[in-house]
């Protein structure tokens, strides 16, 4: 019995080899082509910054051509970045029309500020940067750049400092902004899965 036990004991060398094999295996499991059920992504409340309704997350990810089934995390996040980029572009057009149609000068100023926050120097630039970092495999960077998108959007809706009082905005802009932010949360969640494994 004792002999059996001793014989089964791994030597120091083989322990070290085993540890390296395990490390290698775990780094493989972080691989970009990992497939995670979208149910698992969308149900994970800890992954999402804000309360993203399950349906919003599920429908968005499943709207990828061919459906989400079997799609790896990088493919899903790349798709979501594209959707968010299109929504930001639409929001910029919407803000342009608000500026043109606004008779109220303080609202007009507010919309002009929002245009900056949504533009190349703001949300649009950050979502593009997030996409560039994705292609470089920098998933932490993807998360950080996406979080900057939401900061720019918050700056538009709520002002840049806590002392700014958000203007009561009668337009649909705050709702649009909040919808985009929820999709950005999905990008951040998937990026987090990619860099934490
Ligand atoms: C302009 O819009 C703001 C925000 O909705 C409102 O508080 C303000 O009363 C409006 N001013 C005028 C002149 O209508």
Automatic annotation (TrEMBL):
SUPFAM superfamilies: Plant invertase/pectin methylesterase inhibitor (SSF101148). One of its GO terms (molecular function) is pectinesterase inhibitor activity. Residues 33-190 form the Pectinesterase inhibitor domain. CDD domains: PMEI. InterPro entries: Invertase/methylesterase_inhib, PCW_Enzyme_Inhibitor, Pectinesterase_inhib_dom, PMEI_plant. Keywords: Disulfide bond, Signal. Pfam families: PMEI (PF04043). It comes from the Eukaryota. Residues 1-31 form the signal peptide. Coiled coil: none annotated. Belongs to the PMEI family. PANTHER family: PECTINESTERASE INHIBITOR DOMAIN PROTEIN (PTHR36710:SF20), PECTINESTERASE INHIBITOR-LIKE (PTHR36710). This is Pectinesterase inhibitor domain-containing protein.
């Amino acid at each position: 019995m004792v002999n059996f036990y001793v014989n089964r004991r791994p030597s120091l060398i083989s322990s070290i080899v085993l540890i390296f094999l395990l490390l290698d295996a775990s780094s493989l499991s972080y691989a970009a082509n990992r497939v995670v059920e979208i149910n698992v992504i969308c149900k994970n409340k800890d992954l999402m910054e804000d309360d993203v309704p399950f349906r919003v997350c599920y429908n968005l990810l499943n709207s990828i051509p061919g459906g989400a089934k079997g799609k790896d995390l990088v493919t899903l996040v790349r798709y979501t970045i594209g959707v968010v980029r299109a929504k930001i572009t639409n929001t910029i057009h919407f803000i342009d029309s608000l500026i043109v149609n606004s008779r109220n000068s303080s609202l007009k100023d507010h919309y002009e500020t929002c245009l900056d926050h949504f533009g190349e120097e703001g949300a649009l630039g950050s979502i593009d940067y997030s996409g560039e970092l994705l292609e470089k495999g920098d998933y932490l960077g993807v998360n950080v750049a996406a979080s900057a998108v939401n900061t720019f959007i918050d700056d538009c809706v709520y002002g840049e400092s806590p002392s700014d009082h958000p203007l009561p905005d009668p337009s649909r802009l705050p709702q649009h902004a909040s919808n985009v932010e929820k999709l950005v949360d999905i990008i951040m969640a998937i990026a987090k899965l990619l860099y934490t494994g």
